[in-house]
Amino acid sequence: MPQPSFLAASLLVAFGGGFGAWLRFLVGRAWVAAIGPVRASDFPYGTLTVNVLGSLFMGLLVGWFARHGSHGEGTRLLLAVGVLGGFTTFSSYSLDIVSLAERGQLGLAAFYTGISVIAGVMSLFLGLSIMRHV
């Protein structure tokens, strides 16, 4: 398959990234609706959710590509770089850790750091494993 032009690749990443960021926004809003704004502001539930789901989806996507072929660079740029890049938020994750620590919640900051990494990596393995067995 031919490589997309720089303009086409840029548009794929931009469109996918915008869509992924919108999905991330919806996840955050869903947490606020589910548990209320006060509780939702006590812990970065939305960021944790998108990081774990994003890792799972990346595992599923990479597993799909490994099994069925990549379907071209454009598909990878749109889905992996764009949508999942806009959806997952490790820069927000870092800010959340620092914010918790600066509020004196060092235990919660450490828990959040550990659970995000462990659950994210385990979810990626789960996604790959699922795709290897379907």
What this model shows, in words?
- By secondary structure, the protein is an all-alpha fold.
- It has one domain (6-132).
- Helices cover 86% and strands 0% of the residues.
- It has helices at 6-35, 37-42, 45-68, 73-87, 90-102, 106-132.
- α1 (6-35) crosses α3 (45-68).
- The longest helix is centred in the N-terminal third of the chain and has 30 residues, at 6-35.
- The radius of gyration is 17 Å and the shape is globular.
- The mean pLDDT is 94.
- Keywords: Cell inner membrane, Cell membrane, Ion channel, Ion transport, Membrane, Metal-binding, Sodium, Transmembrane, Transmembrane helix, Transport.
How would the blueprint of this fold be written?
Blueprint: H1 6-35, H2 37-42, H3 45-68, H4 73-87, H5 90-102, H6 106-132
Helix pairs in contact: 1-3, 1-4, 3-4, 3-6, 5-6
Catalytic activity: fluoride(in) = fluoride(out)
Function: Fluoride-specific ion channel. Important for reducing fluoride concentration in the cell, thus reducing its toxicity.
Keywords: Cell inner membrane, Cell membrane, Ion channel, Ion transport, Membrane, Metal-binding, Sodium, Transmembrane, Transmembrane helix, Transport
Q: How many beta-strand elements?
A: 0
Structural domains: how many: 1
Rg estimate, integer Å: 17 Å
Largest sheet: none
What order do the SSEs take from the amino end to the carboxyl end, as H and E? Answer: HHHHHH
Q: Treating each run of at least 4 consecutive H or I residues as one helix, how many helices?
A: 6
Helix content percent band? over 70%
Flag low-confidence runs.
Answer: none
